[in-house]
Predict the structure of DNA-directed RNA polymerase subunit Rpo11.
Amino acid sequence: MKLKIIELEKNKVRLSLEGEGHTFMNTLTEEILADPEVDVAKYVIEYQFSDPELFVTLKAGSKKDPVAVIRDACVRISSRCDDLLGYLKN
């Protein structure tokens, strides 16, 4: 997956995720929103075959890096997938 950072500020980021669709983007957005310091997490797919853009903002006063918040959400998703695969092997 290729990422392109479109906009990056202290408490917000907007990036494009090449080749992803609604399935991953819905999962990622919900996982990002699980972080109590996140204010907004949403994505837009402008056209049917265009790459989605993810927009994340943190609450005022947050000390977290918005890119780190996205990375942490991806790690949690990956961990859950690994747990499921391990369970299915048994």
